[in-house]
Design brief:
Blueprint: H1 2-6, H2 8-16, H3 26-33, H4 40-48, E1 51-60, E2 63-71, H5 79-96, H6 101-117, H7 123-139
Helix pairs in contact: 4-5, 5-6
Length: 155
Amino acid sequence: LNNWSKDFKEVIWQYDFCPSRPEFLLGELKNILGGRCVNLNAVLTYHYTLQSTDKRTKKVGELKFSFATSSFARAVESSADWITAWGRAERAYRFVFPFRVDEFHQYGEFISQMFTQHQPEYHFRVIQFDKAVRKCVGSCRSLLLTDFSGFADLQ
């Protein structure tokens, strides 16, 4: 991460032009590269569709430009949503950190098992737990997603 922080724009440029890169939301890619927690709501929204909330038009000479801002059209609310969003995020994580493939896979399996152990009406708690774990790992460089015993206090 230290090398990436020296020329972040170059890293993004190289990612954009790598033919084997997974399609992923740029803002969330920046979170991955910065060691921060990925917003799975944004990933899920990007996977499906974006809702335009505000349209702006700007005329420059004879050209007319239209811009739209977007909001999250989908939120992770179920195990299916989480699995879809995590699958996308995991592909991006694996591409950026190929030496952590097992960690990402094991974490996905761990959360999936939590979903199967709880009734659907309690899946929101698993989603909250996942957010807390990923935020904790993102803010503490000494933890991995597979340090499951270190997250017992979050449950």
